[in-house]
Fold this sequence. Notes:
This is Ornithine cyclodeaminase/mu-crystallin. It holds the Pfam family OCD_Mu_crystall. The protein has 315 residues and is of the alpha/beta class. The chain has helices at 10-16, 19-31, 102-122, 138-151, 186-194, 235-240, 248-254, 256-264, 275-280, 299-313; strands at residues 6-8, 43-47, 50-58, 62-70, 82-90, 96-101, 129-134, 157-164, 179-182, 197-200, 219-222, 242-245, 273-274, 291-294. Helix 2 packs across helix 3 (102-122), helix 2 packs across helix 10 (299-313) and helix 3 packs across helix 10 (299-313). The longest helix has 21 residues, at 102-122. The relative contact order is 0.17.
Amino acid sequence: xxxxxxxxxxxxxxxxxxxxxxxxxxxxxxxxxxxxxxxxxxxxxxxxxxxxxxxxxxxxxxxxxxxxxxxxxxxxxxxxxxxxxxxxxxxxxxxxxxxxxxxxxxxxxxxxxxxxxxxxxxxxxxxxxxxxxxxxxxxxxxxxxxxxxxxxxxxxxxxxxxxxxxxxxxxxxxxxxxxxxxxxxxxxxxxxxxxxxxxxxxxxxxxxxxxxxxxxxxxxxxxxxxxxxxxxxxxxxxxxxxxxxxxxxxxxxxxxxxxxxxxxxxxxxxxxxxxxxxxxxxxxxxxxxxxxxxxxxxxxxxxxxxxxxxxxxxx
Length: 315
């Protein structure tokens, strides 16, 4: 192992790869033939203070593993509930190439995957894109930055509204001009009604908005829940939408928004659209129905974006 193994901080990750660049890296990998259905499964190990998560993945040129921890008591200590690091190896020699901040990598790659999965729907109009985000944490703001980066030069970003339970409790920085409103308020309902894109990044176990308010061509991105009995989007919307997922088997194993809609509506497993089909053009998203992307978060996404970060750092 090299004595100069690089540690890539959160700041350097942001400097090396823009949100739009991360979207491009995801799309490039899928167009090159990466199959999200192939690869080792993530492992979850119980430890005294919580859980240890192991997320290995491999591409033709790199192997990597994210080691993350979940410590439920950490917020009371003023520490993040989830922390982690990412180790990137050379695929041929398995020599370690870099160690990356795992939290920053996740914050970059999750919205990159979301936007890659629905990019054609974001670019099919030229007028201002109105965006409503449930949640104001790193994933909520990360999705705003990623959508803005991808539509730049194609259409302007219109209103941005974050919907949260308690606006006074939000301490993180929001995009300039973004509004912050309370869940359940008339302002929140108005934000849903005008939104071309609704992002759900809350971890809620129950739907966070009334889908009857949404536009008939709304694009919904749901990233916050990861259990089959929890969802952020109601079955009525998912059931009538074009539903895009990273991998069908993973969505059926972990995506409550999808699993519960299949149980409640006419949506079937065969209706689910792998995001690779959207990225490569094998599937075309029509403008006369909603689009729902349900993300589970998969290890291949980390290795693809980590490799892109390191490649840019090394020029």
